[in-house]
Write a structure and sequence with these properties.
Blueprint: E1 7-13, H1 17-29, E2 35-39, H2 47-50, H3 62-65, H4 81-94, E3 101-103, E4 105-113, E5 118-125, E6 131-141, E7 146-151, E8 165-167, E9 182-186, H5 190-200, E10 205-210, E11 216-219, H6 224-232, H7 235-259, H8 261-276, H9 282-285, E12 298-301, H10 304-310, E13 314-318, E14 321-325, E15 328-331, E16 336-338, E17 341-344, E18 348-350, E19 357-360, E20 363-364, E21 372-373, E22 377-378, E23 384-386, H11 395-416, E24 420-423, H12 444-447, H13 468-477, E25 485-489, E26 492-493, H14 502-505
Parallel strand pairs: 1-2, 1-6, 2-3, 4-19, 6-23, 8-17, 9-10, 9-17, 10-13, 11-12
Antiparallel strand pairs: 4-5, 5-6, 7-18, 14-15, 15-16, 19-20, 21-22, 24-25, 25-26
Length: 506
C-alpha cells in the first residue's frame, strides 16, 4: 500500500544554532504552522556538536551569540563548545522542539512545483541510504555555510611521506594522544589560535605554522558588567542590556576599522607588544598585509595564546610550505619543522544551501545567476529564506533577525491568502551594478566560492550589508510589499497596489 507523502507548512533544514532558533521563533510568532526539522546528523547542535577539538570555543561573546529570547547566564561570556552545545539542547527541550526533528535526514533535492504551490523535496536517510519524499509550503534553510562532508585542505606535496598523523580539526580523533609530542598546526585563523594554547598544555611543543599573519586581540572570557548586572537585575534585563552594550561595541570597532584603519592597526599591534614583549617579532608573525576587519579578527581569551608563547610551550613560524617529509615539514626558507602530528587548520569548504540541488518546475537553479534579496532570499526563487550570519559580528544576531523576518512574511501570506511569495527585480533593475555577495572581505575561504553565490546590487532590497543596524531596519520595519517581494495566489498578485495578475507586473 502506498504511503501518503508527509506535508508540512514549513520545513526547517538544520538543527544547529540557527535551526533551533528558527523553530522557536516559528512556534511563537506563527503558532498555527506545522513544521519539521531535517537534521543530517543524529544530534542537535550543528557546528557545536561537530567540532570536538581541544579548546573548542566561541570567538564571539555569548550575549550576542546567544538567542535574543534566551538569556545566557553563565559567568563566562566566551564559552567553550560543550557549554554552547548544552545551551542549544536546553533551548530545544524548553520549547518542545526535539519532537519535530527528523534526525539522520539529509535534504538532497528540492523542486518547487508552481501548480501545487509547494516544495517537493527528497530526503536521504544517512543511516540506511533510503530516500523519502516530503512536501512543504515554505523552506527555511538553516544548514550553515560549510560542507559537513569535506573540509578545505590544500594538496601538500609529500603528504604521503609523513610517518605521523595528519588531522583536520573538523574530523578530530577524540582518542588522539599528543602528550609529549611535537605538534605542528598549519593555519592562522580562529581554530589554530584555539588549538595552540589548548594542546600546549600537554604536548611537548606546539608550532603554529602560518603562511601569513592574522590580527589578534585578547580579552577576558568573563564580562564583568554582565555578571554585575545579574546580581541586581532579572536575567532577561541584564542579558538585554549586555547584548545592547556588546552590539554597540562591535559596531563601533568595525566602523573604526573602516574609517581609521591605521589607527586601529597601531592600537592592535601596540597591545600585542605589551603582551609579548620587545623581543618578539611582531612585524613578521602578527602584522598582516591587510587592514583590520578586511578579514576576521581572532580573539584570544585571557591571553592564553600569548602565555603559551611567552613560556616557550608554543612558537610561531611564518613561512611557505615546500613539502611534507617523513619527520615533518620542509619550508621554502630552508628551515625544517619537526612534527609527530600535523593539524591542518586550513579552513572550511563553503557551500550554498547545504549542498542540496534546487529547481523550479524542474529547471535547476544556478544561484550565481540570482540576485540576493536582503541577504536572505533569491530573485526568482519562491517560498525560501536562508540564514547566513555576520562575518563582522555574532552569527546569531542575524539568524534571529532572519527568523523574525520569515515569520513576518508567513503571517502576511496568511493575511493576503497568498500561497507563493517570490522576489522579482523591479523595472529598471536588471542592469544595476553587481557586487559580490560578501563585499569588502578578503578572507580566502570566502573568496574561493564567491562566484557561486548570488549577486548583490547597489540598492535596497538587493543588498547584503553585513550591518546589524541596517538589517534591523530592513527586516523589522521596511514594508514587506516593496514592489520586489511579490505575493500571489495561483498566479494572481495580491500585495497592496498590485496589478490584476503577476504577468501584468512583469
Amino acid at each position: 500500500m502506498q504511503t501518503e507523502t508527509p506535508h508540512f507548512d514549513v520545513l526547517i533544514v538544520g538543527a544547529g544554532l540557527s535551526g533551533i532558533g528558527a523553530a522557536v521563533h516559528l512556534q511563537r510568532e506563527c503558532p498555527g504552522k506545522t513544521y519539521a526539522i531535517l537534521e543530517t546528523r543524529g544530534a542537535i547542535g550543528g557546528t557545536w556538536d561537530i567540532f570536538r577539538y581541544p579548546g573548542i570555543r566561541s570567538d564571539s561573546d555569548m550575549h550576542t551569540l546567544g538567542y535574543s529570547f534566551k538569556p545566557w547566564t553563565a559567568a563566562k561570556s566566551i564559552a567553550d563548545g560543550p557549554s554552547i552545545r548544552s545551551y542549544v539542547n536546553e533551548t530545544a527541550d524548553e520549547h518542545g522542539i526535539r519532537e519535530h526533528i527528523r534526525f539522520h535526514s539529509r535534504l538532497t533535492k528540492a523542486d518547487w512545483n508552481s501548480a501545487a504551490a509547494a516544495w517537493q523535496v527528497e530526503v536521504e536517510n544517512t543511516e540506511t541510504g533510503a530516500s523519502e519524499k516530503i512536501t512543504c509550503g515554505f523552506l527555511m534553510m538553516c544548514s550553515g555555510y560549510y560542507s559537513y562532508r569535506q573540509a578545505h585542505t590544500p594538496d601538500f606535496e609529500g603528504r604521503e611521506d609523513f610517518t605521523g598523523e595528519i588531522i583536520h580539526p573538523q574530523f578530530w580523533l577524540e582518542d588522539l594522544d599528543y602528550v609529549g609530542k611535537k605538534v605542528v598546526i598549519i593555519g592562522s585563523g580562529a581554530t589554530a589560535m584555539t588549538l595552540v594554547p589548548a594542546m600546549a598544555e600537554k604536548a611537548g611543543h606546539v608550532t603554529m605554522l602560518q603562511r601569513s599573519p592574522t590580527y589578534v586581540v585578547s580579552r577576558p572570557d568573563e564580562d564583568g558588567i554582565a555578571n554585575t548586572l545579574r546580581k541586581f537585575l532579572p536575567n532577561k534585563w541584564a542579558y538585554g542590556l549586555t547584548r545592547m552594550k556588546n552590539v554597540a561595541m562591535q559596531q563601533f570597532l568595525y566602523e573604526q576599522t573602516r574609517k581609521n584603519p591605521e589607527k586601529v592597526k597601531e592600537r592592535l599591534l601596540g597591545m600585542l607588544r605589551e603582551e609579548l614583549g620587545p623581543d618578539f617579532d611582531i612585524e613578521t608573525h602578527f602584522t598582516p598585509t591587510y587592514n583590520p576587519w578586511d578579514q576576521r579578527l581572532c580573539l584570544v581569551p585571557n591571553s592564553d595564546l600569548f602565555e603559551a608563547l611567552r613560556e616557550g610551550r608554543a612558537s610561531v613560524v611564518t613561512d611557505h610550505i615546500e613539502r611534507f617529509d617523513a619527520t615533518g615539514i620542509q619550508l621554502q626558507s630552508g628551515e625544517h619543522v619537526d612534527a609527530d602530528i600535523i593539524i591542518t587548520a586550513t579552513g572550511l569548504e563553503l557551500v550554498i544551501l547545504g549542498e542540496a540541488t534546487f529547481s523550479v518546475d524542474g529547471e535547476q537553479i544556478d544561484f550565481s545567476k540570482t540576485w540576493t534579496y536582503k541577504g536572505l532570499a533569491y530573485s526568482g526563487v519562491p517560498n525560501l529564506i536562508s540564514t547566513f550570519g555576520y562575518i563582522n559580528a555574532s552569527w546569531t544576531l542575524r539568524a534571529d533577525l532572519t527568523s523574525e523576518y520569515a515569520c513576518r512574511v508567513l503571517n502576511r501570506m496568511d493575511e493576503l491568502g497568498a500561497n507563493t511569495v517570490v522576489p522579482h527585480l523591479r523595472p529598471g533593475e536588471e542592469n544595476m551594478p553587481a557586487r559580490a555577495w560578501i563585499d569588502d572581505f578578503s578572507a580566502g575561504y570566502m573568496q574561493r566560492v564567491m562566484h557561486k553565490f548570488p549577486k548583490q546590487g547597489d540598492r535596497e532590497p538587493w543588498i547584503n550589508p553585513q550591518s546589524y543596524g541596517r538589517d534591523k531596519k530592513m527586516f523589522r520595519h521596511a514594508p514587506l510589499e516593496d514592489g520586489a517581494l511579490v505575493f500571489t495566489r495561483n498566479g494572481r498578485r495580491l500585495d497592496a497596489g498590485a496589478p490584476a495578475d503577476l504577468a501584468a507586473a512583469e
